[in-house]
Amino acid sequence: MTERPPVAIIMGSQSDWETMKNAADTLDALDIAYEARIVSAHRTPDRLVRFAKTARDEGFKVVIAGAGGAAHLPGMCASMTPLPVFGVPVQSKALSGQDSLLSIVQMPAGIPVGTLAIGKAGAVNAALMAAAVLALYDDALADRLDEWRERQTAAVAEYPMDEA
Ligand code: RP5
Prior knowledge:
single chain, alpha/beta, Rossmann fold, 5-stranded parallel beta sheet, 6 helices, about 15% strand, PurE_prokaryotes, isomerase, purine biosynthesis, PurE_dom, PurE_ClassI
């Protein structure tokens, strides 16, 4: 069996990629390998079961799961893997992602999903959470994460300017 990268990014639909790509870009910036896959809880339930039940044995360490609407993907995935699952509520058309957020965040006690913000911010932060988990046992990554934050701090101007 091929050893998988530490992070799996799964999403319910191709239409989620625009949001979830922000998680992928953030992992790229931190030099963390990942695999991105479309795994729909309702359109491809067998694929979800296969993925979630084998994720740990395949070598993944953290799962980032993005979905919109009745967003049961992160919770269903978490129910079938002991790996940490970070859920990203994708902004839906009908309810602007409020539906996605509540679907993902309101897990009953016993099966946790670490839920991030709606949309791009959540996708970026899910990647940073994944990085923080992996950095617990990877000093070089911990240094890269520190540097990422330092660059972010240095990029904030002290005084506002009129936009061009
Ligand atoms: C969810 O339904 C997906 O996660 C997506 O956010 C939403 C809409 O999917 P599409 O109809 O665009 O495929 O399952």
